[in-house]
Specification:
Elements lengths: L2 E2 H9 L7 H7 L8 H12 L11 H5 L8 E2 L10 E4 L11 E9 L2 E9 L8 E8 L5 E5 L5 E2 L15 H17 L3
Length: 186
């Protein structure tokens, strides 16, 4: 089942300002490393429900994973909400990408990306934020096309609901489930 891009975007934008401790706990490691990759893994696996997405603390491992390899391209112009974008920050392509994020918008060649581990070089003070980039930015390494998992179409519920509930009630349920998941130490 595909995830509706609009609902996904609403949920992931709520992570802005979060610090890395909950994502680092999700990885099972201490909170003192570059956590952009595990943030992206968490969002794709736990929020989007894509369990095949690699659970990794390494941008390079994600890019080179069997999951990603057939989906990797450099079509920045066609990037959509939910696509993964990797960054080559040190101009040395032989060591793999150094940063990763999730596309939240592509507007006439300007891509907005939700990124973990930003805003401070101290891992313990960095946070989740949205940054914008021109598609011509040389730091952009590649895109992992996630279009097989997302849709712009409204999600049709084929099951008969036991109780009709409003969208607000459903969001509250998802919020409580997310809080419970984040409170569990792995």
């Amino acid at each position: 089942m595909k995830v509706n891009r609009k609902l996904f975007l609403e949920e992931v934008l709520k992570t802005r300002g979060n610090r890395g401790d909950q994502y680092c706990r999700y990885s099972g490691l201490n909170y003192n490393f570059d956590w952009c990759a595990i943030f992206t893994s968490y969002i794709m696996r736990e929020v989007a429900g894509i369990k095949d997405f690699p659970k990794s603390t390494s941008c390079t491992q994600i890019k080179n994973s069997p999951f990603a390899i057939p989906k990797v391209n450099r079509s920045f112009k066609t990037a959509e909400v939910g696509d993964i974008i990797l960054f080559e920050l040190n101009n040395n392509t032989s060591d793999g990408p150094e940063h990763i994020g999730i596309v939240t918008e592509n507007n006439n060649g300007i891509i907005s990306v939700l990124e973990g581990n930003t805003g401070n070089s101290d891992y313990n003070k960095s946070y989740v934020s949205v940054y914008t980039y021109s598609i011509d930015n040389t730091a952009l390494d590649c895109i992992i096309d996630m279009s097989d998992f997302f849709t712009d179409e409204p999600i049709q519920n084929t099951e008969k609901p036991v109780i009709k509930s409003s969208e607000t009630q459903m969001r509250e349920v998802f919020k409580k489930i997310k809080e419970l998941l984040l409170s569990i130490e792995i």
